[in-house]
Specification:
Rossmann fold; 7 helices; single chain; alpha/beta; globular; five-stranded parallel β-sheet; about 150 residues; about 40% helix
C-alpha cells in the first residue's frame, strides 16, 4: 500500500469521538506522508477532516461535502499552489464555495508570491514554524466563529 493510500484510509475511517454533525474541514494536501499532524490536531479538537490530493478532487469534495473551512498546504513542489486554489475556489460554479473561509499553511519563502496583503478577508495564512499546531487550532476556531460556521 502506498503512503497516500495509507493516509487516505486513515482519514476516511470514521472517528468514534467525532459526531456526524461535526464541523467539516476540507484539507488540500499532496505531501504523500502518512503522518499529518495538522489533520490529527483538528480531528482531536472535534472537527471532521476530509482530504483531497489535487485541485479536481478538492473541488469535487467541496461540492459534495460542503466544508465550513478549507485548509490548503501551499507547496508548489507537490503541485499544490494556494494562489491557484484561491482562483479556482473564487471562480467555481458553486457561489457559496467562493465565500468559504480559507486557511493557507505556507513557508515563509512563499510570502511574496502569496501577496498576503491582497488576499480577501476570508483568507488567513499561517506560516509553518515550531508553534504552527497551536496556532492552527486557534485560527480555525477564530475563522469559524468569525464566519459563524461553528
Amino acid at each position: 500500500m502506498s503512503a497516500i493510500s495509507i493516509r487516505q484510509a486513515h482519514h476516511d475511517e470514521p472517528e468514534s469521538h467525532i459526531s456526524q454533525d461535526a464541523t467539516r474541514i476540507l484539507e488540500l494536501c499532496n505531501t504523500g506522508t502518512t503522518l499529518d499532524l495538522y489533520s490529527d490536531r483538528l480531528t482531536s479538537n472535534g472537527y471532521q477532516v476530509v482530504s483531497a490530493y489535487n485541485y479536481d478532487e478538492a473541488l469535487n469534495m467541496a461540492h459534495e461535502q460542503r466544508p465550513a473551512l478549507i485548509l490548503v498546504y501551499d507547496d508548489p513542489s507537490t503541485n499544490i499552489d494556494a494562489v491557484r486554489w484561491l482562483e479556482l475556489q473564487h471562480s467555481d460554479r458553486m457561489p457559496q464555495l467562493a465565500m468559504t473561509p480559507l486557511l493557507i499553511l505556507a513557508d515563509a519563502a512563499r510570502v511574496p508570491t502569496l501577496r498576503i496583503q491582497e488576499l480577501p478577508d476570508r483568507v488567513v495564512v499561517i506560516l509553518r514554524r515550531a508553534d504552527t499546531l497551536n496556532n492552527l487550532s486557534r485560527t480555525v476556531k477564530y475563522l469559524l466563529n468569525l464566519w459563524q460556521l461553528e
